[in-house]
Write a structure and sequence with these properties.
Helix content is about 10%, strand content about 25%. The chain is globular, with a radius of gyration of 50 Å. The protein has a six-stranded mixed β-sheet with strand order 1-9-6-12-13-14, with no helix packed on it. The chain has a domain of about 190 residues. Strand 10 and strand 11 form a beta hairpin. It is built from three helices and 14 strands. The protein is mostly beta strands.
Length: about 325
């Protein structure tokens, strides 16, 4: 056998690779392939074209793995997973292993007077002095007692969010805030007047007085005053309620809470006149006050010196009473 014949026989013995199957759905021809070469309709059909690579022309099917295909598949997977969002850097609470909770809302804060420990208030009455809250102190007889209506409330925090007060205050002012001295006494008959808006209920508006300071005798001992039903030293280092009894409303008594006097259309007043009935040499008053207007619903019928149950002042007026008597010279120092 010649060399050419042997090479031709070897080539013929090589297995012919099966053509690649197309993934496209192909309809069977009408001739069913029975005509050998096929009919004119199926003769024009060919299998899917062989894969081409940029550097090699038409390629035959490969038996081993394709390194280019592996690389492409790896890159595809990398891109596919990198398109998502990674939560690897999101931190959680190391102690609770939970997502951190939102901070608690700030609390809305204290009323206009501040912390009760820093702002106590009260009313004074001394065994040897006129009652500072006594309606008769301002002159004239008090009105007949009337049953007290319910208590009032004050606006607190942001004005836009605060509820309307039951006391329809139009104004609250002080007058006669000056000393009247003689050779034997010093008085300050200060007057506090509030006016309600047209149609408002004046009985819903009440005053509460707050006090801080001392009253001393010449020897430095504290004078005595009646507060919350007890006689105590006239020595109040911090602000506290100034009241004769447990009801903090100014000028209230056991017959009524509201005992203010008319000062004209929709206006009502109360007065205060600190100081002893009789001045003797060396008596020294050094007092600071705050007279505040409230809705009666915001003033409890029973309180303590620190003002528990008293909240939401509508307006406060600061005032003082300072007087020291020189008996020999018959003069007062303010």
């Amino acid at each position: 056998m010649s060399t050419r014949t042997r090479e031709q026989a070897k080539k013929d013995s090589w297995p012919t690779p099966a053509p690649a199957r197309s993934l496209l759905l192909q309809r069977k021809c009408a001739c069913d392939g029975s005509s050998g070469g096929g009919c004119a309709g199926c003769g024009g059909r060919t299998l899917a074209p062989a894969r081409r690579t940029p550097d090699r022309g038409e390629s035959s099917p490969k038996v081993g793995p394709d390194p280019d295909r592996r690389k492409q598949s790896h890159e595809t997977r990398t891109v596919r997973f990198s398109l998502g969002h990674s939560f690897g850097r999101l931190r959680v609470n190391p102690e609770t292993e939970r997502w951190p909770s939102s901070p608690a809302p700030a609390r809305h804060g204290a009323n206009a007077l501040g912390d009760a420990a820093e702002w106590p208030l009260s009313e004074e009455v001394e065994p040897d002095v006129d009652l500072a809250q006594e309606p008769g102190a301002g002159g004239g007889a008090p009105p007949a007692p009337e049953p007290a209506p319910g208590p009032p409330t004050e606006a607190q925090g942001d004005v836009a969010e605060a509820p309307a007060s039951c006391c329809a205050m139009e104004s609250f002012v002080a007058s006669d805030d000056s000393y009247v001295d003689t050779e034997t006494e010093s008085k300050k008959n200060i007057k506090f007047t509030f006016k309600v808006k047209s149609g408002g209920d004046e009985k819903k508006c009440v005053m509460v007085n707050w006090i801080q300071g001392t009253a001393k005798n010449k020897d430095g001992s504290f004078r005595k005053v009646k507060m919350f039903g007890a006689v105590v030293d006239y020595n109040f280092p911090t602000m506290r309620i100034d009241s004769l009894d447990a009801d903090p409303v100014y000028w209230s008594d056991d017959t009524a809470r509201w005992r203010y006097r008319s000062a004209g259309a929709n206006s009502f007043y109360a007065t205060d006149s600190p100081g002893p009935r009789t001045w003797v040499d060396g008596i020294d008053y050094d007092l600071k006050f705050k007279m505040c207007l409230y809705c009666i619903d915001d003033v409890a019928t029973t309180s303590d010196a620190a003002g528990s149950g008293v909240k939401n002042p509508l307006k406060c007026i600061d005032w003082v009473f300072k007087a020291k008597y020189d008996g020999a010279a018959k003069t007062f120092t303010h």
